[in-house]
Amino acid sequence: MNLGALCRTAEVLQLQELVLSSIHISADPAFRKVAVSAERWQPISVCAVEQLSVWITQQQRQAATVVALTRHTRAVSLTRFAFPRQSVLLLGRELTGIPSSLLEQCDQIVEIPQWGRVESLNVSMAAAIAAYEYLRQHSEAQQ
């Protein structure tokens, strides 16, 4: 369901691409229910979890900055982070987050400031906040 919400957010914000670990995810009834048909228009590509390290390297070779979105001691607050135009947002799994080996590969680590007692946001909500901030920064730069 989180991935369905993420697909819907990506389509609404017109993000370039959503990368899933399997194309079968987008056929799941729970995904489609939450995506509300966004999977028809949102470009989706696939990268198996085992291939993420290679995929990250490919993105970096194409001049993309890979930004991990997670709470971390080295993380920069989203309120102070300037997204490069060519950014890739790496998200972790609910509960387990982003593996440390992949975090080490990322160019930046960003976190959303939080003041409550709960330790984290839902991954699709966190992604929506970060994507909106990216778009806010780059739409203001064009004005």
Structure in words:
With 143 residues, the protein is α/β, with parallel strands linked by helices. The chain folds into two domains: 1-46, no CATH class; 56-143, Alpha/beta knot, CATH 3.40.1280. It has helices at 2-12, 29-35, 52-61, 100-105, 123-142; strands at residues 18-20, 44-46, 65-69, 76-77, 87-90, 108-111. The strands form two sheets. A four-stranded parallel sheet has the order 4-6-3-5. A two-stranded parallel ribbon has the order 1-2. Helix 1 (2-12) packs parallel to helix 2. It starts with a helix and ends with a helix.
Give descriptors for this structure.
6 strands; alpha/beta; Alpha/beta knot; globular; two-stranded parallel ribbon
List the helices and strands and how they pair.
Elements: H1 2-12, E1 18-20, H2 29-35, E2 44-46, H3 52-61, E3 65-69, E4 76-77, E5 87-90, H4 100-105, E6 108-111, H5 123-142
Helix pairs in contact: 1-2, 1-5
- N-to-C order of helices and strands: HEHEHEEEHEH
Number of strands: 6
Strand content: 5-15%
Largest sheet: 4 strands, parallel
Ends distance: 36 Å
**Global geometry:** globular
CATH class of the largest domain: Alpha Beta
Based on the structure given, which CATH architecture of the largest domain is correct?
3-Layer(aba) Sandwich
Number of separate helices: 5
CATH topology of the largest domain: Alpha/beta knot
What's the name of the CATH homologous superfamily of the largest domain? SPOUT methyltransferase, trefoil knot domain
What is the helical fraction, as a range of percent? 25-40%
| Class by alpha and beta content | alpha/beta
Uncertain stretches: none
State mean pLDDT (0 to 100 scale): 94
Structural Rg: 15 Å
The overall number of domains is 2
Give the neighbour order of strands across the main sheet: 4-6-3-5
